[in-house]
Every structure is written in C-alpha cells, then in structure tokens.
Amino acid sequence: MTTDDLIRQERSALIKAKATELGFDFCGIAQADFLEEEAPRLEEWLRRNYHGQMAYMANYFDKRLDPRQLVDGARSVISVLLNYYPEQRRPEGADDYKLSKYAYGTDYHYVLKDKLKVLLAHIQAEIGDVYGRAFVDSAPVMDKAWAARSGLGWVGKHSNLLNRSMGSFFFIAELIVDLDLAPDGPMADYCGTCTRCVDACPTDAITEPYVVDGSKCISYFTIELKEAIPTEVKGKFENWVFGCDICQDVCPWNRFARPHHTPAFALSPELQQLTNRDWEEITEEVFRELFRRSPVKRTKLEGLKRNVGFVKDE
Questions:
Q1: What is the pLDDT of residues 99-111, one digit of tens each?
Q2: Is residue 219 a known part of a binding site?
Q3: Residue range 188-202: average pLDDT?
Q4: Which of 138, 192, 302, 308 is 20 to 30 A (C-alpha) from 8?
Q5: Do 167 and 293 belong together in one domain?
Q6: Distance between CA 171 and CA 156 in Å, rounded?
Q7: Which biological pathway (predicted)?
C-alpha cells in the first residue's frame, strides 16, 4: 500500500467518523465518474415517459450522470443515509387517511443540508483547501445510484435503496468534493425471488422488477401532479393523501427498520391526533401552521384538499 493510499484511507475514516457523530446512520464513498450503467436505463425510462409531468427529470441529462459537471474537479462522492422510521405512527387503519412517514416531521431538506454543511466544514478544517457542494434531492444527482456505488445498499425492485441492517426508510444525500478518497465497493442485490412490492402496488406502478412508472405512482398523483387525478385510478389509493409507503411497508427487509433518533422528524401531537374530519375540513390557517416546515406544504392547501376529496369516497 502506497503513502497516497494510506492518506486516502485516513481521510475517508475521518469523514465517516464525523458523519456518525452528526447522526448519519451510514456513510459511504464512491469515485466521482460517469454513471455508465445508469445512462441507458435513464434514457429508456424517459423515453417511456415514466416521469409524467416531472419535466425536470429530463433536464440536465449529462449532469445527472456525471458529478464532475456539477462540481469542478470532483473526485469523490460521499453518500450519507439518515433514518426516518418513526417510533410513533399515525393511525393506518382501512378508513384512516394516510400520510407517508417521511412527511411526519420537519422537511428533510433543511435537516440534511445543515448536517452536510457541518460535515463539509469539518473536512475543510481537518484536511485543508477542499471544494465541495452538498446535494439533498434538489439537483440532478442520482442519489440512489451513488449510495449503491458507495456500498450503502442496493436498489430494490421498488427502486428504493435497501440496506441489509435497516431496510429502506432513509433519506439520502451527497457531498461531492474535489478530494481523493478511498472508495467503497458496491453491495450485492439481496431481493432474490421476492416480488412483494411488485404485487402490492395498487396502481401497478412497478411495471417490472426494478422499473417504476413514476406517472402511475400514488406519490406522484398526490404530490407531483398539479391537475385533477385521473378517474381510472379511483378506488386504488387505499386512503393515501400524501405520498405512499405500500411498497416499503410490505418489504421483508423493513422488518429490520428501527426508530430514528432525529427529533426534527418526530410526529407532532397535533398531526397524530388529526381525524378524517379534520383532514376534510382543514383551513388555510391550520394548514399553514401544521405544515409550516413540512414536506406536505409542497401540495399547498388546494392540492391536499384535492387528494382528500379524491380518496374520501373510495
């Protein structure tokens, strides 16, 4: 092993130790280069129009596949996972309106971005003149692909990242830096012959294992779609009014999910106690206060009312 190899390993260990200290559950590193395997898959996915009205998914095709076009001189992609599986869950009976668990607390963009800024500052303080940028689901970065390359898990048949020790209820974020680090190898795929997620999707959004038609996903209909929800999916939402966790809830690997330790993601008493009638009669004032720093604000009040109205008579 050369001196340079030792330096890369020491720097990588330093970064991972700080990531753990900041509360991240996992941290992995990949070399920043072109995502050759993902390129034809993304091209075909877009060709099939599986992105629906998410026009931004077709933008910056080359940047989406090559981090060196996002950060000058990029050498490494540092991927982190932060668990959001809740200790206390909202009622999820057959008649209850349902909210994706990732939206129980503060918008993850705020939480992860703040932690990544601290991590980057630590790298600069300990190592020196390092340039890098933090990415939290808000730029053309294929976060699941990079997390998989970094050995943090594998992309399952439902297209979510799966980790053997904690399942899939994670937020993913990256630091792309102009620093040579010791890369981690990818992990094997442990989905095996299981098709529970494929079989459980009520809108048949998982068209084949590992391929999701985003324009058929309940999360797409309740968050991304800005117009009326198509009548052909009426009766298939199982009372989800913001997002959907079905494919994750049925996944056997999520039997290993355990509660997060991030106070900002905690379910508030007000949201816990929200009844179906409260959802149906929610006012602008209540919406603004209840979801002030929540991902739910993305739908705006009109979008949430549309979703509730759509599932009300299912």
A1: 999 999 999 999 9
A2: yes
A3: 98
A4: 138
A5: no
A6: 15
A7: tRNA modification; tRNA-queuosine biosynthesis
Residue 82 lies in a domain: yes
* pLDDT tens track for 24-68: 999 999 999 999 999 999 999 999 999 999 988 888 899 999 999
The residue out of 150, 177, 204 marking a domain boundary is 177
Same domain, 210 and 120: no
Q: Range of 222's domain?
A: 196-312
Are residues 120 and 200 both part of a single domain? no
Which of 121, 148, 177 terminates a domain? The answer is 177
> Catalytic pick from 66, 137, 180, 189?
137
What total number of domains does the chain contain?
2
Same domain for 21 and 159, yes or no, is: yes
Confidence of residue 94 (pLDDT cuts 50, 70, 90): confident
Residue 27, marked binder:
no
Q: CB within 8 A of 245, min separation 6: which ones? A: 98, 100, 101
Residues 217 and 151 in one domain: no
pLDDT tens string 129-175: 999 999 998 788 999 999 999 999 999 999 999 999 999 999 999 99
Overall average pLDDT of the 89-95 stretch: 88
pTM exceeds 0.90, yes or no: yes
C-alpha pair distances (Å), 137 with each of 90, 126, 143, 187, 302: 25, 27, 7, 22, 24
Is 189 part of a structural domain of the chain? no
Region class of 39: left (phi > 0), else alpha (psi between -120 and 50), else beta: alpha
